[in-house]
Amino acid sequence: MTSITDYIRDEVFSARLRRSAVLVVYDAHRRYRQLCESLACDAVAVVDASESSIESREAAVRAFVSLGRGEPGPKELLIYIPARASVTDEERQTDPFAAYTVCGAIFPSGDGDDYLSLCLKAKPDHATEIRRLFEQNPSPSFALIDNLGGGLQWPTLRTLLQAESARDILFALLVPSPKQKEALQANEAWVGEARALLGATLGLKLITRGKTWSSIADELWRFLLFSEFVFDLPSGLPAALSNVPRAPEAARPLAEDLCERLRNDARTRPTYIERAEQTEADLDLPSHCKEIAGLGVRETFPFEERTLLVASLRALEADRLDDIRGILDRHRGSVWIGQGESQARWGLVEAILRLVECCDDAERQLLDHARGLDALIGYYVSSLCEVDRRQREFEQSTADIIISPDTAMMAVIDQARQRYGRLTEKIGALFTRHLEATGWPPPGRLANADVFNRFVQPLLYESRRRVAYLLVDALRYELGVALHSELAETDQAELQAACAQFPTVTPVGMASLLPGAGSGLQLAKEGDGFVAVLDGARLVQVGQRMEVLRARFGDRFAEMPLTRFVAPKEKVPETVDLLVLRSNEIDSHLENSPETTLSLIHQTLRTIRVAIHKLKGLGFADVVIATDHGFFLNAHAEAGDLCAKPPGNWVTVHDRSLLGAGAADANNFAIAAEKVGIRGDFLRFAGPRSMAPYRRGLLYFHGGASLQEAVVPVITVRLRAKQPEVAKASVALSYKNGARRITTRLPVVSLLVETSDIFSLRSDFEILLEAQDRKGKVVGEAKPGGPVNAATGTVTLKAGQPEQVTVRMDPDYEGKFTLKALNPVTMTAYAALDLETDYAV
Questions:
Q1: pLDDT digits (tens, 9 = 90+) for 353-371
Q2: What does each C-alpha distance from 302 to 246, 293, 409 come to in angstroms?
Q3: What is the Cβ-side half-sphere exposure of residue 304, based on CA atoms within 13 angstroms?
Q4: Strand 632-633 relative to strand 76-81: parallel, antiparallel, unpaired?
Q5: 770-828, pLDDT tens digit by residue?
Q6: What are phi and psi of 677, to 5 degrees?
Q7: Helical pair 302-317 and 408-438, crossing angle rounded to 10 deg
């Protein structure tokens, strides 16, 4: 039989070391010192803080640093401290070992780690005797615990199942391996022992007369799951459920331990989910428990998770953000988060929380940065743009699920949108007020019209370096921040904010990125509209803009769409020193259908990274990434949210800007054109003072004067030679314990990066997850949220830590496909999984 020492060593300490590599054991009673020392070996470093605090601190630091550097020697670290664990923040500040608990695991952790609970889990056969012993002696020795009960029991079950402890026998009866199941089905000699075991350990008196494993397992599962549910209920049971068999309080530690083990083990989790769903339906729990306000903290059944989701929506509606944070923290480890539709809804709840938090933080700090236009731009660049990122991620999450209009979810979505709308209106009013006073761009700020002359031209003329100039339409500043963060991991990348050329529309913005635009760009009146003119050349089409560069650089110049360049067979002549790569996908997608294509933004950012990898191989040394304008997502707008144009003789440039002659009014500014950097035939530049457009029903717009439309990123990249990987890793990709058919358009897959050293210098791994049909067309990809970056669509994984990732399938695709884990830069495959759709409808 398993001794209490073996159980704590193997199932608690060793198990946590395997998961976290670092374990801090606090032991005020000095009960576990020898047990901890027994774990010391070539693979495990044990630091004992009993003798000398200073020496033990030094030893812990040396061992931890050795682990982090991947040096030869122990791969796990256990620190033993003969004291009570720190509880408050003040206590942690004075605890020299508290930092290690953040990096790894801690013991004891929760009520399940007290000595009595450990004894009950290790020897569930003798729960009554153990409780009696603890009543007489609150700290019985290991020897006393091990001497309980005498000889071996349940000999047939032990032999058939190859299990020693009652706990392991119960686990095998619930989820037997194929070999164990075969042994149970071969004869009925074990049934009498099973009845006695279930009665002695869980208090279950089997009702079934059946002598097969399936009949006993059905009753055992229902009994066990319902017992955990009842133990967790803070209030009494509904009368309709009062007669359903359940375990006595003495069996609570064992019942909860078995359920936790079944949920947490990847091999048994699918069975747990299936059994819990069946038990919930058999007992009609949602109907019987609908009047219960609180269902406890464990989510035994799926309806508990749905109830918790409703509670989170009520907390959001009431602006109880602390309650939401607690609910989300508690839910992260839920077994039901592996359900794709559930994960999408919880992802939306978290996105709403993050947006509201970000808006609150931004509004608190706004007045400190509102004294002038330069200060406001500085605030936007440093932190305020984070609000736009949170709003974009929130709108992406909203688009991922179908929401009925008259629901609590829709109510909190509208509430979050209005919260963002109020903040951006306040910021927009500040921006236009300062714009009227200061002009554009503010003194000392980089103008987009100077980007070529300042960043590209010196490299071509002075350094004679090969330069790629990426012109990305509608690369909003917050997207530039996300892209820069990705590029800086592998190359020397710098991000600067630039002031876009007014009006912030593509013909003007792209023309401003050409040589000499800072001094030579003009806007000329043409018919009822206008045209950009550079040094006398009309620039209406892409080809005309590219001709300006070709005329200046000749054979040293080439240009093409970004998507064409990344094709494997696309070549660039060696004579080319300036390569212009053009992308209009972001603007095109959002102009046409912003409700459904917002999630496609990451495809452009991903293509840029692939292009930069290819540029390295072609001998390019530098990359400059620029854009014409930003954009604003107007999802919070209501039917009447539009602006009337001011009186005057105006040319409508776009949905938020006018050129011509006229006066400002209460709703519109009208600034002298030269004051905002516009040269040519127009006297004044006008636009709404608010964030409203001139046309009704726009969810996406640009063209006007706001931080989101007019402050844009410029990213310069100095390409490095390819560096060898610090650590080799393999990727394990799996779906539902080997299932090959998906029954939902939001399947959840498991990803795990496996390395020989989880403390490798490269502990983060980035993976692109795509579902491809037989022709290589992408028919599904990772849904943003959690470990999936909403801007780039890539999954960030910690070595050795499995992640469950939801794949969002193309709603129109059905059939066979291959799920691939790819390197997001080289597009080489780490792992692949062949699957097939099998949707019910």
A1: 999 999 999 999 999 999 9
A2: 19, 16, 18
A3: 25
A4: unpaired
A5: 999 998 899 999 988 778 887 778 888 887 778 888 898 988 899 999 999 988 888 88
A6: 80, 15
A7: 40
